[in-house]
Design brief:
The complex is a heterodimer of chains A (216) and B (103). Helix content of chain A is 73%, strand content 9%. Chain A has 216 residues and is mainly α. Chain A has a two-stranded antiparallel ribbon. In chain A, a hairpin with a 2-residue loop joins strand 1 and strand 2. Chain A is rod-shaped, with a radius of gyration of 36 Å. The termini of chain B are far apart. The radius of gyration of chain B is 14 Å and the shape is globular. Chain B has 103 residues and is α/β, with parallel strands linked by helices. The chains are: A mainly alpha (216), B alpha/beta (103). At the A-B interface, helix 1, helix 2, strand 1, strand 2 and helix 3 of A face strand 3, strand 4 and helix 5 of B.
């Protein structure tokens, strides 16, 4: 690992040591963050997968009934039946902070008091298959809302985990080793200087003694 | 207060209208992208989009990936399940863990 381009001075050494401590602490915190995010993420993504399979199956069932209804009813009649919904959904969104990732939480409110009031048409002119299709969709709707919530959370958390992992790796494999190497280099350089000063002093002392006692 | 929208070909999303979901029929990427932008600017919290349409406008959808809202969720349409929805879940795992450990 390349050492940093710094002057081997005592001041630089103190600075680097302080930076190393900060880097180590940051590394530990980020690692904890990554682990916790990963734990929550894996729970969520498992649920996401199961939920998605359920929802897709539910929509498939509804689509089958819908196709039949489409066949037995004219386009116009179907338009008229579904054009004016009696129900309106309103979504309450609250944000939850999970390890500094803001994930949404959805809460559905229906406009009419009776949430099962979903048939926006009279039964005399529509096919029973339409009722089945609408009922099937209405049954799967709460799961679809939950799916939206959990899938968005997974998406946001996956992003954050990726970022955090990169940071952890950068600290662990680049920053911290580089600081350590540089600190080692400066320490050795300073020690070397000290030794050379000592030897120089000893040499000077010898020379002075020789001069004072008139050795040849 | 947010609303819920469904986008895609008419046949696939028609049923949602009776549940109080706003439906926006769209068949091609240009039309779809325009509607998606309008919906994202308006107060729609969840946008369901058929997998067929979603496959045509991946880039447009990716722009909203890192925003908390709206949540854009692919759903199968009448023409069947293309597997795009489950694939996207696998992509999340791959992104977070490094490889898809759940498949």
């Amino acid at each position: 690992m390349a050492i940093m381009n710094v002057n081997p001075t005592r001041m630089e050494l103190t600075n680097l040591k302080r930076k190393l401590v900060t880097a180590r602490r940051g590394h530990k915190l980020l690692k904890d963050k990554r682990d916790e995010l990963m734990r929550i993420f894996l729970d969520k993504v498992r649920e996401n997968k199961a939920l998605r399979k359920e929802v897709e199956e539910g929509i498939r069932q509804a689509n089958i009934a819908m196709s039949v209804a489409r066949c037995v009813m004219s386009d116009k009649a179907l338009d008229v039946a579904l054009m004016l919904p009696t129900q309106e959904m309103q979504l309450d969104v609250t944000e939850k902070n999970v390890m500094s990732v803001m994930i949404p939480e959805f809460d559905v409110k229906f406009r009419t008091a009776n949430a099962t009031d979903i048939y926006s048409y009279g039964f005399s002119e529509t096919s029973g298959d339409l009722d089945i299709a609408v009922k099937a969709l209405s049954d799967i709707m709460p799961k679809m809302i939950r799916l939206a919530e959990i899938e968005k959370s997974c998406q946001l958390m996956a992003d954050e985990i990726e970022k955090t992992r990169r940071r952890v790796n950068a600290l662990e494999h680049v920053m911290i080793p580089r600081y350590e190497e540089t600190i080692k280099y400066i320490t050795m350089k300073l020690d070397e200087n000290e030794r050379s000063t000592t030897t120089r002093l000893m040499k000077v002392k010898d020379m002075m003694l020789a001069q004072a006692h008139n050795y040849n | 207060m947010y609303k819920i929208a469904a986008m895609g070909d008419k046949d696939s999303i028609y049923g949602f209208a009776s549940l109080g979901v706003s439906i926006f029929p769209a068949n091609d990427a240009v039309q779809g992208s325009r509607i998606l932008r309008q919906l994202a600017d308006a107060d729609y919290g969840v946008i369901y989009i058929t997998e067929q349409l979603a496959a045509l406008m991946k880039d447009e959808i990716a722009r909203y990936a890192s925003l908390p809202l709206p949540a854009i969720i692919p759903i199968p349409g009448v023409r069947g399940n293309t597997g795009l929805g489950l694939d996207s879940v696998s992509k999340f795992v791959e992104k977070a863990v490094g490889s898809d450990i759940l498949s």
